[in-house]
Design a protein that fits this description.
mainly beta; four-stranded antiparallel sheet; 9 strands; about 45% strand; elongated
């Protein structure tokens, strides 16, 4: 019986020494579009759909403020619609993805891009 108790205690000690994993966040969606010298990237980050928006583009000013976005997402049908929730003076964009049709409207320009629905 002492051997069983010893092995149980040893197993518990090993488990306590192992690094604890936290629910890691990752990418739940990624979109990229480029034209000439302009590049746009949007990533939805989080533990579940739809996640939070991280958008970058050529010439984007360094900003420390968080921006709210309107997100409609249907992963099963691979449909996504994203745009800033409020006009705040920063560049406006609208992203529509439906299956293989990926289109970005950015400051009056229409760009075709590539969507990646893989969850990382």
């Amino acid at each position: 019986m002492d051997l069983v108790r010893f092995i149980s205690a040893l197993g518990l000690a090993v488990l306590m020494l192992m690094p604890r994993t936290v629910n890691a966040s990752g990418d739940v969606f990624r979109f990229e579009a480029s034209a000439d010298d302009f590049h746009f990237e949007l990533i939805l980050v989080g533990r579940e759909d739809p996640g939070s928006v991280q958008a970058r583009w050529t010439g984007k000013p360094a900003s420390t403020t968080m921006r709210r976005h309107h997100i409609d997402m249907d992963r099963a049908r691979q449909r996504l619609f994203v745009h800033p929730a409020h006009a705040d003076g920063e560049s406006a964009f609208e992203l529509r993805v439906s299956g293989t049709v990926d289109e970005l409207w950015f400051e009056g320009r229409r760009l075709q891009g590539v969507a990646d629905w893989t969850v990382w």
